[in-house]
């Protein structure tokens, strides 16, 4: 399968690693394309109401 402009990728995570740049995820699509994502941690601050 080759990627085209209209191709919708179906990303699968091959691996995740913690580096000095943060947490990275390496993902591939069956068409052969790869991408690297920097994962961000979401946090919630809970405070007392007034």
List the helices and strands and how they pair.
Elements: E1 12-19, E2 22-28, E3 34-39
Antiparallel strand pairs: 1-2, 2-3
Folded structure, characterized:
The protein is 0% helix and 42% strand. The chain has 50 residues and is mostly beta strands. The protein has a three-stranded antiparallel sheet with strand order 1-2-3, with no helix packed on it. Strand 2 (22-28) and strand 3 form a beta hairpin. The radius of gyration is 17 Å and the shape is elongated. The chain starts with 11 loop residues before the first strand and ends in an 11-residue tail after the last strand.
Integer average pLDDT: 81
Cα separation of the termini:
58 Å
**How large is the count of helical segments?**
0
Low-confidence stretches: none
Strand ordering within the main sheet: 1-2-3
What is the number of beta strands? 3
Sheet/helix structural class:
mainly beta
Secondary-structure element series: EEE
Estimated helix fraction: under 10%
Question: Tell me about the biggest sheet?
Answer: 3 strands, antiparallel
User: What is the general shape?
Assistant: elongated
- Radius of gyration (CA) equals 17 Å
Question: What share of residues are in beta strands?
Answer: 35-45%
